[in-house]
Write a structure and sequence with these properties.
By secondary structure, the chain is an alpha/beta fold. Helices cover 37% and strands 21% of the residues. A six-stranded antiparallel beta sheet has the order 1-2-6-5-4-3. Strands 8-9-7-10-11-12 form a six-stranded mixed beta sheet, with helices on both faces. β10, α9 and β11 form a beta-alpha-beta unit. α6 runs antiparallel to α11. The relative contact order is 0.12. Bound molecules: guanosine-5'-triphosphate and magnesium ion (MG). Guanosine-5'-triphosphate binds next to α7. The site of magnesium ion has 5 residues, from α7.
Length: 347
């Protein structure tokens, strides 16, 4: 039904919603709308009926004109059924244009550090400006600019893209309780019976200004049934997902499970500090942070301790409150492209 130059684009996210907004643009806009709508006419915002090809009424909607703009909007009921019928009637919604990474971050930011970075990168031109700036330089100036851009990119990527952090350890070590303190809510079941967690439990958090995806896993140890075996297998698979935090009950001796896992760990979290201290030190060079998680009131302190330890292990500065100070790569693809460009300068 849509004319050749009429474009219907869904502005609201997919999924169930109270209201869906469809933008209509193009020179054939009015012709397409006259076939789609039963429109009494009137002011810039008016109630219309939306019709299917056979004339059946799909929905009652608001037709909203924006004075001076070439586009108008239909505000429909957001149920998937209504949207599917409208999409059929208009011959399909236009694909959304790919937003640039700063724009995407602006939409998805969950913390002020991310919002500030998104606004900064949008204003300073982001990755295209970074590349253009480097191409204009030569010799030592360019080397210095590449080094500075690498530093900005390291921080920008850590702010823009959550690092996955996998909590592993012995059964009953306190992994799920730690996850709950870091998440500020009772996300996972906890309790004294060993082997309580089975499936990995995932939760998004921001620690010390940097975003993380946490994964709580089934504890390793005695597997009493086939389910335990499968759950522990999932833990071993999850080790490859990201930075590994080895959670150890600090009131218990260091054991086989810890010995097995510590080579994979970026950080040891020595928990249950309220219960007294067994005498062990973490072998090798792995950093260790000590916490007590039994009291939910300690969440702020636990989040600060683990967030700071992770920041240091990852070699990141304090999360900047106002962006990274210049254009940077925000995505893995941009970072790869930047490295390719930088290598080209050296060659
Ligand atoms: N005193 C004290 N108890 C804790 C602390 N952290 C966890 N616990 C207790 O230790 C027990 C086990 O905690 P969980 O968090 O369920 O342990 P887990 O490592 O997730 O255990 P699995 O899922 O079985 O591997 C629970 O009874 C918790 O209340 C702590 O810091 N101090
Ligand atoms: Mg658990």
């Amino acid at each position: 039904m849509a004319g050749r130059d009429a474009r219907f684009r869904l502005l609201t996210p997919a999924g169930e919603g109270g209201v869906a907004v469809v933008e209509v643009t193009g020179v054939d806009r009015d012709a397409a709308l006259s076939a789609l709508l039963q429109d009494p006419g009137g002011g810039p915002i008016r109630l219309v009926r939306v019709l299917a090809g056979d004339g059946a009424i799909i929905d009652q909607a608001l037709r909203v004109e924006h004075p001076g703009a070439e586009r108008l909007e239909l505000h429909l009921h957001g149920s998937p059924g209504v949207l599917a019928a409208v999409e059929r009637a208009v011959g399909g919604f236009a694909e959304e244009e790919a937003a640039d990474p700063a724009e995407l971050l602006l939409r998805e930011a969950v913390h002020p550090t991310q919002l500030a970075l998104a606004l900064e990168q949008r204003a300073c031109g982001g990755f295209p400006a970074l590349c253009a700036g480097l191409r204009m330089l030569e010799g030592p100036d360019r080397d210095a600019a590449v080094a500075a851009a690498r530093g900005r990119t390291l921080v920008a990527r850590a702010l823009a893209e959550p690092a996955t952090c996998v909590l592993v350890g012995r059964q009953n070590a306190g992994k799920s309780t730690l996850l709950n303190r870091l998440a500020f809510r009772e996300r996972a079941l906890t309790g004294a019976s060993p082997g309580l967690t089975r499936d990995p439990v995932r939760e998004a958090v921001v620690l010390s200004g940097y975003p993380y995806r946490l994964v709580d896993t089934a504890g390793l140890g005695d597997a009493v049934d086939a389910l335990d075996v499968q759950a522990q297998r999932r833990t071993l698979e999850a080790l490859a997902e990201g930075v590994v935090l080895l959670v150890v009950d600090g009131s218990f001796p260091w054991g086989e499970v810890e010995e097995e896992l510590v080579p994979r760990a970026a950080l040891v979290v020595r928990t249950k500090s309220d219960l007294g201290r067994a005498s062990w030190v973490v072998p090798g060079e792995v950093d260790c942070v000590e916490v007590s998680c039994i009291d939910p009131a300690d969440s702020v302190a636990v989040r600060a301790a683990v967030g700071e330890a992770l920041r240091q292990v990852r070699g990141l500065p304090d999360a900047p409150a106002g962006g990274v100070g210049g254009p940077a790569a925000l995505t893995a693809a941009e970072q790869r492209e930047f490295e390719r460009l930088a290598r080209g300068f050296q060659g």
